[in-house]
Amino acid sequence: MSTVTMTEQEPSTTGTPMVRADRVRKSFGRLEVLKSVDLSVEAGEVVCMIGRSGSGKSTFLRCINHLERIDGGRLWVDGEVVGYRQRGNRLHELRAKEIARRRTEIGMVFQHFNLFPHKTVLENLIEAPRLVLKEPRDVATDRAIDLLGKVGLASKAKAYPRQLSGGQQQRVAIARALCMRPKLMLFDEPTSALDPELIGEVLDVMRDLADTGMTMVVVTHEMGFARDVADRVVFFDEGRIIEDGPAAQVINDPVHERTRAFVKAVR
Ligand code: ADP
Ligand code: MG
Asked: Which of 191, 200, 195, 246 is closest to 220 using CA atoms?
């Protein structure tokens, strides 16, 4: 059976979760986008998030990645309270610099690839490791080339983004995120801007990444991918996760009527 809207999370028994949300709330003005989100993602888990447009999925990912500030509840990444430093039982708000540092530990891939158009693929990959991690050029370059090989684009190091297909650009975006050695990867509908024939190559790269043990939270409506790759699927509905369970069960035999209707519509 899947759990349905937990009100209180049990402490993890398998170590520190990579992500833990406890009654997370977020509003934009009077619009309450996240009403009470509860979620726990263990290290090494792949969790797919599904749900209607506007249900709060992107906002939740942005909260995990310090791009939005939550209004209530509590959010942790790898045991650290998002936005705060904990000393004893007191919380101190983080400065921008410390938030920026924590953000470097989380990779994010968006629907639109956001590559730098005037830089080559290789320059796109080594930019952040050089500027943010202060890595020497040869170290950053070696890893970038290795990662380009892993996403099947070793021959494109010197190409510019506009010379690549959408699927190739998205694979570059994934490699670029991995260059920062993230401990967590967030994907926000990474294939929904792609032509259908290019979706598979991006999902294959994500599947390979999952096989390496990377912790991944993936907003996607690719049900085949979710069923094959995700450990769990969670269903967002109006700012809450109302269903959370093993992928096959949530997709094939959801508990909630709303999940059932949604899954039927996207299948
Ligand atoms: P989803 O990703 O599930 O489609 P979003 O998290 O993008 O949902 O959006 C949830 C709701 O929050 C939508 O109604 C959206 O218009 C609103 N929203 C998102 N970001 C902002 C913002 N920065 N300012 C105001 N409203 C926003
Ligand atoms: Mg979204």
From this structure: 191
Return d(Cα 121, Cα 105) in angstroms, integer: 21
* Six token digits for residue 132: 């943010």
As for ligand 1, residues whose beta carbon falls within 6 Å of it are 28, 31, 33, 51, 53-59
Ligand 1 center–CA 32 separation, angstroms: 10
- Domains along the sequence of the chain with CATH: 44-71+96-105+184-267 (3.40.50.300), 115-182 (no CATH)
**Whether pLDDT at 113 is above 50:** yes
Least confident window among 7-11, 33-37, 76-80, 163-167: 7-11
Q: Which atom of ligand 1 is nearest to the CA of 219?
A: 2
Beta strands in the chain (DSSP E): 19-28, 31-41, 46-51, 72-77, 80-81, 84-87, 90-93, 106-109, 184-188, 216-219, 232-237, 240-246
Q: Which residues pair with 51 in a beta bridge?
A: 236
ipTM of this predicted complex? 0.98
Nearest CA to ligand 1 atom 11: 54
- The residue type of 4 is V
- Residue 260 CA to ligand 1 center (angstroms) comes to 23
pLDDT tens, position by position, 233-258: 999 999 999 999 999 999 999 999 99
